[in-house]
């Protein structure tokens, strides 16, 4: 066992886990600075449609809200009891997606492989020339500061020899944290933490562990294998491996994208829509090029405008048929820019984002002449 540990821990792989801090709530607070320091939660749309507190469930809670014990997956009715002054905002998925895409694009510049596991979380494999933990930490600092500068939100990074430890490390100091766990530090780092810190160990499993006298990851590392297997089964064995610093799962490039988007930064910022639309045209071409490479058709176009004051407006339009026609894409994107900008004619624009989604694979015979422009 010890030998196995030692072997795993001398592996040279360095893995990073990046987690945006209370993501949805952070984006909302960024765009509405008055909400800073207030207990803010983002809730599913249902609540706002029905205005019925028995229906809403929290999707994200700001740090001040967490101080009241509010957390994601908590019913709003319970949240209101704990914190009567809670401010509940509706989900703005398009906006979060746009911020997430931008963050991933920044991360991609610095690393070799990005495995996005959710809208606000990714595992990362560093470039081959990053050989030490110091260099990895330096890379993390660059990613953190570029995301903070571009999106004005913070993220927390964990760096470790494997995925589980990297994820546990990123949860260790939040928000805006960076935790580095070198191979020789893994067991010492994990040992005092509660077993619930292991990804996948929920309330139920923790209760079973508790019955076996296991509270910390260190307890689990030393526990009797057979007993764990009997009570928890194969997943119990996997949790025990993680407790011993063993996790050979790989960082995989995120599978087929569900959307393709590109952004364009205006420099200098401008409210001249002719200039903005020229930028839009060039990113439509980039999006189209990727569609052709991937042999994809789209049905939905999303356009986002980010203003110099960091407020953002987005709009999505779904069409009746799938297409990859570039003229169609450009024309609709430009119309949508006009519609979005109409209410803010004097505000300077900082960035535009154009994306397509609702994608469908196609074969070459279905393509149209305009697909090849
Ligand atoms: Mg997060």
UniProtKB/TrEMBL annotation:
Catalytic activity, as annotated: DNA(n) + a 2'-deoxyribonucleoside 5'-triphosphate = DNA(n+1) + diphosphate
Q: Name one GO molecular function term.
A: damaged DNA binding
Where's the active site on this chain?
121
Q: Which UniProt keywords apply?
A: Cytoplasm, DNA damage, DNA repair, DNA replication, DNA-binding, DNA-directed DNA polymerase, Magnesium, Metal-binding, Mutator protein, Nucleotidyltransferase, Transferase
Quick check: keyword RNA-binding in the entry? no
Note the site residues: Substrate discrimination: 24
Main location (coarse class): cytoplasm
Q: Which residues form the UmuC domain?
A: 15-202
Location in the cell: Cytoplasm
EC identifiers of the protein? 2.7.7.7
Q: Where does Mg(2+) bind?
A: 19, 120
**Cofactors, names only:** Mg(2+)
Gene Ontology CC annotations of this record: cytoplasm
Q: What class of enzyme is it?
A: transferase
Main role? Poorly processive, error-prone DNA polymerase involved in untargeted mutagenesis. Copies undamaged DNA at stalled replication forks, which arise in vivo from mismatched or misaligned primer ends. These misaligned primers can be extended by PolIV. Exhibits no 3'-5' exonuclease (proofreading) activity. May be involved in translesional synthesis.
Record's family?
Belongs to the DNA polymerase type-Y family.
What is the designated name of this protein? Answer: DNA polymerase IV
Q: Which organism is it from?
A: Methanimicrococcus hongohii
